[in-house]
Structure of TGS domain-containing protein:
Amino acid sequence: MNKIEQAKKLARQIHKGQFRLNGESYYNHVERVFNKLYNAGVRDETVLISALLHNSLQYSDSPKSQIQKQFGPEVLFIIEQYKKLTEKTIKRNSPKNFNEKYIIQTFLNLAKDIRVLLIRLADRADNIESAFIFPLERRERAAERALYVYSPICRLMGGLNFTRTLEDEAFKILHPQQYFQIKKLIDKKKEKINKLFAESEEVLREILDERNINAKINHRIKHAYGIYRKSLLYISKGINPGKNFENILDVAAMRFVVNTVEECYIVEDILKQLWNEVSDSRDDYIRSPKPSGYQSLHNAFKVDRQLVIEVQIRTHEMHEISEFGKASHMFYKQRFYKMGDNIKEKFLDNISILKEINYWNIENKSASKEFEFTQFDKFVYVFTPKGDIIELPKGATVLDFAYSIHEDLGHSCSGCLINEKIAKLETQLKDGDLVEIRVSKNKKVPSPDWLDIAQTKRAKHFIKRALIKVSPSSTLQR
């Protein structure tokens, strides 16, 4: 029995007698998570075994020694990190107003290992598909996390085929009427679009062969949430998307990947001869790359009265960089490049690892260090009771957290809860901590010894300023 089969057998034993709310065996969920990763191209044995055992420590620590003996310390490490990640819950009704600048950093810090995050995303993608079994409030909370937390992370990590699932299933829960209107629109156009793609590709390949251009051609129909985002773009431009989204014509897309820059423009000229170019739709990011470094030729063509196709044309090198390099899909699609270079550099140190996990079998490597995230060692990321993410320097205390929110909150701070447990003001914060400040209405002046507790310049500044007002000489002497 190979190790994958051994892991399946152990998972069945661990989850024997465990059932989900819909009555299915918990093992069925575990196997679907495994299949999602495998179908996404993941072939790394350590990742796949860990996926099968990802929840094995949730109910008991007893399998630890058995897991280490059968599958090695690396699998056990991933499973332990996964358990720690799941214990850090987001305590808010809606994460849609998250400061997106910190979402990625927070989850990278919490996950510590890129493989842990891969398994978590597969788990969330499976869970959102069965979220209908939950009560409304819990169902909507799961959908909001899928849409505003896990989907952006998934995009950053190359999609893994999970992004569409996370977005569409969450969209269906949060906006069912719009979802089914768009689904109806897609179903109505699907047959026509697929027929057009098939006929067009045949013609295009004949023409390209005559020009000795070997092009890789991909095409797709946009998913429901993607079309919904397109409708919001229409509205922002003063265009009515239609009561049932019927005015949205660009629901399909094609991508051409060729060998040279010259061939990019030749392909575009061929398309102009076949179809009518949509005015003001052309963007040449080859000659004028985006700030992220992304390069591609974008255009849109009206192929008939009711259908517009968006087109991307790029070289293999541009495509490689777009998918795995400095212009990773997330940075131009989600505009994360505007956040500054630190997040790009931190992630790009590791981004090639995604390619290794997906396309190489590296089971013979000792990869624990290889797959470790370059962490944001200078900062910790903690949650407010509302779910906002606060960035603080490593070593920051509860007092620093209070002053980072507001000067008055710091002055009146009398205690706190960390992860719903009472803690002291001098307690140093860790990634993922949920911090709730307790205040005293009668306390408006900080204590002088707080200067020894505070670690940030902001907190020290506010404390000194308040103490000067009360006792200038003693404060200055201190």
Observations:
- The chain has 21 helices and eleven strands.
- Confidence is low (pLDDT under 50) at residues 325-376.
- The two ends are 71 Å apart (CA to CA).
